[in-house]
């Protein structure tokens, strides 16, 4: 067994700009590469199958489809590319609207803009921090109506075409309620499951609950291919269209005839080889994340002002990114003060993402009032939770948080 040297900073969008954890520090979340990655990559290099076709691409697609329980999977260059493709195959058109979680990494909202449509931001619910089904129901009932055979938002007159819930932080959104309201309003459901591979909702794996689902294999996700993504669906027409669009929409590979403006969105065989080796470890990764979450929850139980990440009775979460809420009234410090304190101890923590209804990048989207997401954003702090986090390192994190509370 070979081990790659481990980067000392968190990778992907969670890296604090210009502030990597110094040597000896504890990073937020780094990849775990201890399986068959070397062997499979070696095989790609030895055989010359390095590019965007190859046995590992097929195998990775088959394995992920099996894991999620869908009949089709199409590998993509990134999770964002999978989301863009999903919106295209779902028939989302320029000036349509798509209902998107406001409390999420920005990629799904950006993908909505790539197709010329507009994200309409939905608030989170306070218990599990996922898209609030009641907020969606209220929005559709109060602010939309069916006219000309489609659902439109009254204020903008635009067609509401799709619902895009994001399963954030390894916990599923309440999909049974969300799918019900989506069906009632004829919306296509696209799950952004980038952060929640391995989680389930009412016993069903995330990615199996909507019409199309997207995964990411960026460096900070539960499993990584360096960079990559996957689109899964049970609909053969969606799958075929996705495969077509992600491979430059080629009609005739000999004569280079293209039937549409396609994209170069394929995953390479080398990346897929890493993905296969990573996916072989999925159960072990999830167990490690859940063990880390249990230890934090036990250690912080009873500390005033700390609210631990919860798991819904209908859910099995992966606890991909361990996050807690810090209430300065009970704890004596704000989440951002605790962030600075941890940083002084070379422990990398991170707040959540600025809610997208506040994002300058989406200032052109319809105004939304999302008070729950605002509160969660202010209070949330993610703690080191790499799959390979040692118990000793975790105890160091716990000690610093505890001491901060006592001092506060
Ligand atoms: C990471 C992430 C993505 C984007 O994935 P990339 O592979 O980095 O393009 C999309 N949505 C969410 C919720 C994510 O966390």
Structural overview:
With 408 residues, the protein is of the alpha/beta class. The chain is built from 13 helices and 17 strands. A hairpin with a 2-residue loop joins strand 4 (144-147) and strand 5 (150-153). The protein is globular and about 70 Å long. The relative contact order is 0.17. Bound molecules: pyridoxal-5'-phosphate. Pyridoxal-5'-phosphate is lined by residues 78-80, 104-105, 107-108, 166, 192, 194-195, 216, 218, 229.
Summarize the structure in short.
The chain has 408 residues and is α/β, with parallel strands linked by helices.
Can you tag this structure with a few keywords?
seven-stranded mixed beta sheet, single chain, three-stranded antiparallel beta sheet, 36% helix, 408 residues, 17 strands, disordered N terminus, globular, binds pyridoxal-5'-phosphate, 15% strand, alpha/beta
Order of helices and strands: HHEHEHEHEEEHEEEEEHEEHHEEEHHHEH
| Radius of gyration from the alpha-carbon trace, in angstroms | 21 Å
User: Percent of residues in helical segments?
Assistant: 25-40%
Q: Give the end-to-end Cα distance, rounded to a whole number of Å.
A: 46 Å
Strand order of the largest sheet: 1-11-10-7-6-2-3
Average per-residue pLDDT, rounded, comes to 94
Give the helices and strands, then pairings.
Blueprint: H1 37-47, H2 55-68, E1 72-76, H3 79-89, E2 97-101, H4 107-114, E3 118-122, H5 133-143, E4 144-147, E5 150-153, E6 160-164, H6 175-184, E7 188-192, E8 200-201, E9 204-205, E10 212-216, E11 229-233, H7 236-246, E12 250-252, E13 257-258, H8 269-279, H9 282-300, E14 306-307, E15 315-316, E16 323-326, H10 328-331, H11 335-344, H12 371-379, E17 380-382, H13 391-407
Parallel strand pairs: 2-3, 2-6, 6-7, 7-10
Antiparallel strand pairs: 1-11, 4-5, 8-9, 8-15, 10-11, 12-13, 14-16, 16-17
This protein binds pyridoxal-5'-phosphate.
């Amino acid at each position: 067994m070979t081990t790659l040297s481990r980067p000392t900073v968190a990778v992907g969008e969670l890296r604090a700009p210009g502030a990597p954890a110094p040597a000896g520090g504890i990073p937020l979340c780094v990849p775990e590469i201890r399986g068959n990655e070397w062997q499979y990559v070696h095989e790609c290099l030895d055989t010359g199958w390095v590019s965007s076709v190859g046995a590992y691409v097929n195998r990775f697609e088959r394995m992920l489809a099996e894991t999620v329980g869908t009949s089709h999977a199409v590998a993509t260059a990134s999770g964002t590319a999978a989301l863009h493709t999903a919106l295209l195959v779902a028939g989302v058109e320029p000036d349509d609207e798509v209902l998107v979680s406001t409390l999420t990494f920005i990629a799904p909202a950006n993908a909505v803009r790539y197709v010329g449509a507009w994200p309409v931001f939905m608030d989170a619910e306070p218990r599990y921090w996922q898209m609030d089904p009641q907020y969606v129901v209220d929005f559709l009932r109060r602010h939309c109506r069916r006219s000309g055979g489609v659902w439109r938002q009254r204020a903008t007159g635009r067609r509401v075409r799709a619902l895009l819930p994001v399963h954030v932080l390894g916990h599923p959104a309440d999909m049974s309620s969300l799918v019900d309201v989506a069906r009632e309003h004829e919306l296509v459901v696209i799950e952004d499951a980038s952060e929640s591979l391995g989680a389930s909702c009412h016993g069903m794996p995330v990615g199996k609950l909507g019409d199309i689902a997207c995964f990411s294999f960026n460096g900070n996700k539960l499993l990584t291919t360096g960079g990559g993504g996957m689109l899964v669906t049970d609909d053969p027409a969606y799958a075929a269209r996705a495969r077509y669009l992600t491979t430059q929409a080629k009609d005739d590979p000999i004569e280079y005839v293209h039937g549409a403006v396609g994209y170069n969105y394929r995953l390479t065989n080398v990346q897929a080889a890493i993905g296969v080796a990573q996916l072989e470890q999925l159960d072990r990764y999830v167990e490690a994340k859940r063990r880390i979450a249990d230890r934090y929850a036990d250690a912080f139980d009873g500390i005033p002002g700390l609210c631990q990440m919860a798991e819904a009775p209908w859910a099995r979460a992966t606890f991909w990114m361990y996050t807690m809420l810090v209430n300065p009234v009970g704890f004596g410090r704000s989440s951002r003060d605790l962030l600075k304190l941890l940083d002084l101890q070379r422990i990398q923590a991170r707040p959540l993402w600025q809610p997208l209804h506040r994002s300058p990048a989406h200032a052109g989207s319809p105004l939304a009032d999302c008070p729950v997401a605002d509160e969660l954003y202010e209070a949330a702090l993610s703690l080191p939770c790499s799959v390979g986090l040692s118990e000793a390192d975790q105890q160091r994190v716990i000690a610093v948080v505890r001491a901060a509370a006592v001092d506060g």
